[in-house]
Amino acid sequence: MMENNLEIIRIADYATKNIENESSLSDLQQIANRTIKDLHDKENVLIFPYVLNHHKDDIDKEFICNVENSKLCTKDIMGFVGVNNTLLSIHTRFAKDDKEDFFMHYMLEKVFKINLFNLKHSTSDDNVFDFLPFLFPHFLKKALGQGLFKQYVHHKYNDANVRGTIDVQRHIKYNIPFNGKIAYNVKEYSYDNAITQLIRHTIEYIRSTNMSAVLKCDPETISCVSQICSATPSYNTQNRSKVISMNLKPLAHPYFTEYKPLQKLCLQILKHKKIKYGNSNNEKIYGVLFSGSWLWEEYLFETIIKDCEFKHPQNKAGKGGIYLFEQPEDENKSICNLSRCKRYPDYIKENFILDAKYKKLNDNKIDRNDMHQVISYMYVEKANIGGFIYPNPDNNQCAKLGQLRGYGGYIYNIGVKIHQNAKDYNEFSSEMKQIEKHVIEEITKLETPNN
Description:
By secondary structure, the chain is of the alpha+beta class. The protein is built from 12 helices and 19 strands. Among the domains are: about 150-190, no CATH class; about 310-445, no CATH class.
């Protein structure tokens, strides 16, 4: 489909499609068979989770798509990625049609804690760049949680309080005949720097759009915006291009790590008018992508699992994992450091192990490795209940797969119905809340003795 001189190719996740346009096929071959990590490191593509291999799930090794001959094949990755004059739009397989992907936007709303009810055409337009400002508060708060960013900045002064290197040329130009002032240069720590200026320009840009309400979505966001504005007194809207060019090199800082994804998001927001139609010579590959498995896992935790009082282990933070071996009194005597063998189930609570699967589970068939993993966790934790929770296009289904031999225990498949026939996003959201409530009740029933 051609729109605004842009060839738009729409496809679902885990799907195949023949590409007839040779130009588009050539464009897609630039991203096909390249790993997520490669695109994340080398291209202007935002990828979530931003910390790849979030739970040792090898997201970084996955491909956006494969192209063989003229056939395009997608897997777990969804979102939008542009290559030259081709835009690949990957929606969930539960979308009502090619354009109305209520499900993906609903998951994004819950995971990033944003409100999409007032976002016009959010689910019917491939223009994901108009969605980016809604992610801005999330990343702004995470960044400022590490403190206001500061770095060395070169400042030029001309006064009587000399505290740097005298600038002879400027001194002769401005202070001859002598007027009591000295021109000098100072390298000093400052909160008014290239990064905070970039954030300030992004704030002012969002204020100028019909999405300005996102800057006032909660008291914490209002406070963060105020901090940035106070820290950037030298802000000048005419300097936007200069500020953008100063931020083209990704930030590398040992402490302010949360500013790197914020920097990338700000650049996407500020440059979106230039790149969304493929008119920029400097941005050949751009976009926003989400791991379906990660999005599904985080969505479940925010809407269902948290209310069921499960813990959600985090590999990167080293929180909530389980040890496979007993901890020896003297770790130095531990063979091969077995005491460090720690694993991170998706969700865990006393007597219950639950694994989130975004995969298609037809006829309750489970991948053998996934089954072995859950059984192993159940054995180590002496859990009597284990199972898989997955999206189901048809209905809520809680199926008992069977009882384990040996120590016993039951394995279940828990299907979460994805509403298919909503007229609009409000109806979809309302229906999903009822579905989530029902799933919580089903999980609670599984914990009831003799169920």
